[in-house]
Amino acid sequence: MSIDVIVTDCDTKHGFAIARYLRKNGLSVCSQHNNRTNPFYFSILSRIKVVCNFRNSNGKDLFFNYIENTSPKVVIPVSNLAVKVFSDNRERIKKFSKVLLPDEKSLEIAQNKNMTFKFAEKIGIRYPKTIYDAQKIEQTIELLNQFSFPVVLKYVNINEKGVSYCKNIEEVKSILNKYKKNNMTPPIIQEYIAGTGVGFYALYKDGKCITNFMHKRIHEYPVTGGASCFAMSIYNEDLKNAGLKILDALKWNGIAMVEFKLTGSNELYLMEINPKFWGSYELSEKCGLSFANDYFDAAIGKAMTPSKYNLNIGFRWLFSELLYYRDKFFIKNKKYSTDEKPKLNKIYNDFYPDEPLIFILRIIDAIIRIIIKKTNPHSVP
């Protein structure tokens, strides 16, 4: 069977959704999974699958050999890691398939937090007050005297994970010592910006924006700041201009999400640039856009025209919402949760009647998480 497109990371909610909508558009889709134990692997509609893990060399070789043997028209990297792996092997991929990737320098700026915020400063984008070099702990503590707490510690590179919120200097010291003990790159330290998470999402081809979308987070999990579990489509001129300014300056190619915090005084602070598809992808589909289909068309050289989208459309990710309400119950500081009830024209969710097994498996997974109290992985400020 010929394959039109391979979608990576289909063990994530957005990878699964991207593959699902491409199939609905009539394309032959192969789903890449990192393992066989995730609920989405058991999709009854996903008939072509490849299982390999990009975190080890064997998994990478298996995937690239699969591309060479099947020659799909397009490959779509979904996660940050997949984008990096594809970028490192772009010449090998291009012999057998099409893919949209930014150049190596632009990708490095997006994936390295140190470079991201220095780039933002260079082009005049507002971002949180930042300590870049936390290698010398005592010197870092001195600089922290200029900050108010809580502060946020963020990993620098994509191969390191972790965001921590610290209420005082002792907590900062403890985390920095852990980084040092494990020989990890010291994190950047930033002031905590209270506000609403908003995002600018775009598809670019050779430095030009093809289509874009904006959303606002109503609920996040973790509640202190994380992925959307309830979001809505919006239009914000300042957000659009800031997102375009960043991606235009990077001469972007492919998919990107630029995340900001919008404060009560309507100031936008850059949180991160992600060179990948976003976890709340499905909302954009329900608003009348299909970034995945547009990605496919742009990759094969089809002429593209900008698309409009519907505003005030909401989307709930049911299982993440369960965890949000559980954690909200335990967090007494209302600063980190919201009771906002915006007026929405329609609300969708990620229950799929044609995928009953996935729904059952995800319920089991959610119950396990609730029982074992696998709470906020970012810690509670």
Short recap of the structure:
It is built from 13 helices and 15 strands.
Please describe what this structure looks like.
With 381 residues, the chain is an alpha/beta fold. It has three domains: 5-99, Rossmann fold, CATH 3.40.50; 129-191, Dna Ligase, domain 1, CATH 3.30.1490.20; 196-371, D-amino Acid Aminotransferase, Chain A, domain 1, CATH 3.30.470.20. 36% of the residues lie in helices and 22% in strands. The protein has 13 helices and 15 strands. It has helices spanning 13-24, 57-70, 80-88, 90-94, 104-111, 113-123, 137-144, 169-181, 237-249, 281-286, 291-299, 318-330, 356-371; strands spanning 5-7, 29-33, 48-51, 74-76, 130-131, 151-154, 163-166, 188-191, 196-205, 208-221, 227-233, 254-262, 268-274, 313-316, 346-349. The strands form three sheets. The chain has a seven-stranded mixed sheet with strand order 13-12-9-10-11-14-15. Strands 3-2-1-4 form a four-stranded parallel sheet, sandwiched between helices. Helix 12 (318-330) links the parallel strand 14 and strand 15 (346-349). The longest helix is centred in the C-terminal third of the chain and has 16 residues, at 356-371. The N and C termini lie far apart (52 Å). The model is unreliable at 375-381 (pLDDT under 50).
Question: Which helices and strands appear, and what pairs or packs with what?
Answer:
Layout lengths: L4 E3 L5 H12 L4 E5 L14 E4 L5 H14 L3 E3 L3 H9 L1 H5 L9 H8 L1 H11 L6 E2 L5 H8 L6 E4 L8 E4 L2 H13 L6 E4 L4 E10 L2 E14 L5 E7 L3 H13 L4 E9 L5 E7 L6 H6 L4 H9 L13 E4 L1 H13 L15 E4 L6 H16 L10
Parallel strand pairs: 1-2, 1-4, 2-3, 14-15
Antiparallel strand pairs: 5-8, 6-7, 6-8, 9-10, 9-12, 10-11, 11-14, 12-13
